[in-house]
Write a structure and sequence with these properties.
This protein is α/β, with parallel strands linked by helices and 293 residues long. It contains 9 helices and 14 strands. Helix 3 packs parallel to helix 4, helix 5 crosses helix 9 and helix 7 runs parallel beside helix 8. 49% of the residues are buried. Its EC number is 6.2.1.5. It comes from Phyllobacterium zundukense.
């Protein structure tokens, strides 16, 4: 099994006719993802990448049976695209756009509360279930089918950890880039719950970073349920100064509570096995799963 996506996932791309939408849609189609159309207002009735283009998400869903949308829309219009998909009843939205204005994301969050939509992102690297479905911009080539779930706030480290897990002979069930912006949809805790409910996931890697309190919320959840599969954690930014933005919008330690050390301690106390270094994540999960077998 996988989480969020499977062989029946039918994807539309909001913003498919732009450069990024075109490039990554083509790559996903080559990977085997079932992309069934695109949405670009004003271009309905045309074709792009030999796929139909629609003016509205609701129309695209009706005509194609789409049950997932990926968003390659510029930041100033990305929230409107997300809200349109939410209001159309889209089950899954993966928003790749980075730096969506915070005020706009507050409107998206309010729309989500009235729906059953799962939003991954914005500023997500996407979702990848090896050999089944890829939505987003994750690099492929080192992934392989297996039983390790990966959830991550960091795009670059995701690719590194996928390669390490594959090299350790384990492979991945699903990898989810939850998004690096300060306000986003699916949280680390939400994603962990999905992995723990998946019978095919036998170990989980959680990659965190400075900023916010998601790691602490994840730690509180894990401490309460004490999962019977190993969870390995990596939190980067140990030496990042407070009150200085590091990289993207979410990597911002506003206080000691949101720095790497505090997050690491919270996860340790919850029973998470902390990888000593980014290059040891694969070996750490291999050892943890062998010990739990």
């Amino acid at each position: 099994m996988t989480i969020l996506v499977d062989q029946n996932t039918r994807v539309i791309c909001q913003g498919m006719t732009g450069w990024a939408g075109t490039h990554y849609s083509a790559a996903m189609m080559e990977y085997g993802t079932r992309i069934v159309g695109g949405v670009t207002p004003g271009k309905g009735g045309t074709y792009h990448l030999n796929l139909p283009v629609f003016d509205q998400v609701a129309e695209a869903m009706k005509e194609t049976g789409a049950n997932a949308s990926m968003i390659f829309v510029p930041p100033e219009n990305a929230a409107a695209a997300m809200i349109e998909a939410i209001e159309a009843g889209m089950p899954l939205i993966v928003a790749l756009t980075e730096r969506v204005p915070v005020q706009d994301m507050l409107r998206v969050r309010a729309a989500l509360k009235q729906s059953s939509t799962v939003l991954v992102g914005p500023n997500s690297q996407g979702i990848l279930s090896p050999g089944v479905c890829k939505i987003g911009v994750m690099a492929t080539g080192s992934e392989r089918k297996g039983h390790v779930g990966i959830l991550s706030r960091s795009a670059s480290l995701t690719s590194e950890v996928i390669a390490q897990v594959s090299a350790a002979g384990l492979g991945q069930s699903t990898t989810v880039g939850i998004g690096g912006d300060a306000i986003h949809g699916l949280s680390m805790r939400d994603c962990m719950e999905l992995f723990l409910a998946d019978q095919d996931t036998r170990g989980v890697i959680a990659i965190g970073e400075i900023g916010g309190s998601e790691e602490q919320e994840l730690a509180e959840f894990l401490a309460g349920i004490k999962p019977d599969i190993p969870v390995v954690g990596l939190v980067v930014g140990r030496y990042a100064p407070t009150e200085r933005r590091m990289g993207h919008a979410g990597a911002f330690a506003q206080s000691a509570a949101s720095d790497a050390g505090n997050k690491i301690n919270a996860l340790k106390d919850a029973g998470v096995i902390i990888a000593k270094s980014p290059h040891l994540v694969g070996e750490t999960i291999r050892e943890a799963m062998a010990a739990a077998a």
